[in-house]
Fold this protein.
Amino acid sequence: MRHPSATAALLAAAVLGGAGLAPAAAHAGTRPAPVRAAWLASCVDHKHDDNIEPCGHWRLLLRDGRRLTVRDAAIGRIDAAGYENRDQSTFVVSADGRVIAYERARDHRLVVRRVGGTATVLPARLRPKGVGTDDLQIKLSPTGDKLLIDYEDEPARLPTKVVTVATGAVAELPARDDALGFSGDGGAVLASRYRADHTMALRAYPLGDGSPAAGTPPQAVANAMLYALAPDGRTVAWLVAADEVTKRPARVRLYDLDTGDVSPAVDLSLARGESPYTLHYAPDGTLRVITQRGGEGKAAVIRVLTADPRAGDVRQLDRYTISKNAYAYFAAGE
């Protein structure tokens, strides 16, 4: 998540809300293109020391350049007592760009919506009494069929929940683990746990039958900036940030939870000021890196790269911009 836009002159408007999607006239009757990112505008609050705050509605930037507005999504969160604050609400887009998840404005219930299709309002009990939405972190599976809900309680007592949207079935993961995200096929969740001996364990929990794949990675893996779990449920991609002192570029490698093997690295060729901030596997099994450059009052340039450490190959899959007036954004797969 960062600050960012798209060229407004190229965008046709549409509305996504309680009644569903109203396509722009030129595209009526067609299925909306996948979502690239969701973003929220910023405004100056002249009543409160000219603070910069989120405002308006969440907007979706589509791959064909169009924009949709999500009118029923909250822009702020609520605390444990139910009071609204001006911290921007959580909002996620599935890696395939077909599903979004957010908290509903009128009651802050979690909603999972297929873009151009139906919405599912999740049960209120998924946010226990005494827990605000400012204590929730959510992630969608790559195709949006499952939603992960992680609770930021301290000490950790509430287990992470994974909801299958179509059925409402809920699986639970240990509260002491930090959930890092879904595997590329959505069939497992990668999690980490720091031990008393200062080592880190990685576990891949299958959401069906089977035992978790687990490993205690070497320090280089443990110190990684980002992680992603492959569709096979055991291969972990990890990214190390660039080192300006040694002039070493950001690079991606693979770690096998079963064997402990580490692959050769593939370097990312990034522009000055460009940094990677999301790593995930797409539904087609490709490993993707999302990078950002700009923001903070300037339009942010977002690039989506595919990386294959085994083949030593990196390619640009997509490139777009987010408005300089954005307060925050979430890219698809983030």
